[in-house]
Every structure is written in C-alpha cells, then in structure tokens.
From TrEMBL:
Lineage: Eukaryota, Viridiplantae, Streptophyta, Embryophyta, Tracheophyta
Domain of life (superkingdom): Eukaryota
Chaperone among keywords: no
Family matches, as InterPro entries: KH_dom (IPR004087), KH_dom_type_1 (IPR004088), KH_dom_type_1_sf (IPR036612)
Keyword vocabulary terms for this entry: RNA-binding
The protein's name: KH domain-containing protein
Domain K Homology: 46-116
Molecular function GO terms recorded: RNA binding
Originating organism: Trifolium medium
Length: 121
C-alpha cells in the first residue's frame, strides 16, 4: 500500500504552485514522487530508511540471543533491518531500518518495545 501525503501550497503562481526547494529536496531524499494537480501537490512515499542509535546498555535487549529479537522485527514488520555493533569511542550501536512506510513504522515500534524492555533490566 502506498501512502500519499498532501503538501501545503507555499505560493500560488497563476495555474502553477511553487514549492520550496527545501520541501522538494526532503521529498526526493525520502523517495517521494511529487505529482502536480492544478492546486494540489501530492507526494507518494514508496520507500523510507531510518537510522537509529541504540545505547550500549540496552543494545543486548534489542539484538536478543543470537539475533533473535532482530529476526522477530524483520519477520513481523517485513522491513529490512541491519544492525551495526557499537564501535570503540561510540555510545551505542546503529540499527538501519528500510522498507515501505508501514514496514518501517512497524519495525520502529517493535524496536522501541525492545529498547524499553532493556531499560527495565
């Protein structure tokens, strides 16, 4: 399922609408396709990628035994999930989630649940 986002008009110029370059760059960076319809601008998000830094003290809860929690996130959400172990001099590891907007949202929600369970330990 594709998600459409309506962007507000920034300035009307005759039959055309000018959107700021900031909005256009943001849309392109997130894989959005911008369609122009007279007075409406619609952007379709087809793929998103999110990078999340996970603190070292909850990283084990996120990863799980033999990567079991990460596998669960992948299976339930359908998103691509890549985990980078904490490296020397950093405060945490990195989790990169990509997929459709619905997949990335589901994966982020599951990741947050594992982070919260690790904070209670």
């Amino acid at each position: 399922m594709q998600r459409c986002i309506k962007l507000k008009r920034s300035q009307k110029l005759g039959n055309y609408i000018q959107i700021s370059s900031r909005i256009r760059n943001l849309a392109e960076a997130h894989g959005m396709i911008i369609y122009h319809y007279k007075a409406n601008i619609v952007a379709t998000v087809t793929n998103t990628t999110v990078e999340i830094i996970v603190s070292e003290h909850v990283f084990g809860a996120v990863y799980g035994e033999d990567g079991g929690n990460v596998d669960r996130i992948r299976q339930i959400s359908g998103a691509n999930v890549t985990v980078y172990d904490p490296s020397a001099g950093t405060s945490g590891g990195k989790v990169v989630i990509s997929g459709t907007p619905d997949q990335t949202f589901a994966a982020q929600s599951l990741l947050q649940a594992f982070i919260q369970s690790g904070q209670g330990s």
